[in-house]
Design a protein that fits this description.
Elements: H1 2-16, H2 21-35, H3 41-53, H4 58-73, H5 78-110, H6 114-137, H7 147-161, H8 167-182
């Protein structure tokens, strides 16, 4: 049963996760943390942080980790857990793969269609809203445990927004700040 649930959850996330990984975060948390309880909110927050530091899209990285963890926590072996990881990753990628095939076939035919252009114009602000919702969801007690957390957040926000600090450098600086402030 967990296999079908895992496939269904990540297929649904792959279908409705317009806007990329950040837009998927609320869908992932709703199903994986709240409904099925495959991982805790703290683990989810850690996955988001780790996915920021590793290559690849956050949706795929989280699917890989959560697929493994869900199957492993259900009592299956390491080999079966790797299959669970592969299943979740495949399920989240499948809708995009199919959609890209279909779009590439029809794109040249409909690229100047006013209805298609209007639909994409409507999707843009919705995507920004989903990303903002994901950011607000991550503002929880697991991430902001004391004033030091707010200090790191404020510094990261200011350095990224105002001074355009490279995200990789920002991750390294935040990690160093965490070591200095919390060790």
């Amino acid at each position: 049963m967990i296999w079908l649930q895992l496939f269904y959850v990540y297929l649904k996330i792959g279908i409705f996760g317009f806007g990329g990984g950040y837009a998927m975060l609320s869908l992932i948390q709703s199903d994986v943390v709240d409904q099925y309880k495959w991982i805790s909110l703290q683990e989810f927050t850690d996955i988001v942080a780790i996915s920021q530091m590793t290559p690849g899209p956050i949706g795929i990285n989280s699917a890989t980790y959560i697929g493994y963890t869900a199957i492993h926590n259900a009592g299956y072996s390491q080999g079966m857990s790797i299959l669970g990881s592969s299943l979740a990753t495949f399920a989240v990628c499948l809708p995009s793969f199919i959609l890209v095939l279909i779009i590439s076939y029809f794109f040249s035919k409909f690229k100047n269609n006013k209805y298609v252009a209007a639909a994409f114009t409507g999707l843009r602000p919705a995507t920004v809203g989903l990303i903002a919702a994901a950011a607000l969801m991550l503002m929880n007690k697991e991430n902001f445990i004391d004033y030091k957390s707010f200090l790191i957040f404020g510094a990261a926000f200011l350095l990224t927004w105002k001074f355009k600090v490279n995200p990789i450098l920002m991750i390294l600086l935040a990690g160093a700040a965490g070591i200095v402030l919390y060790w």
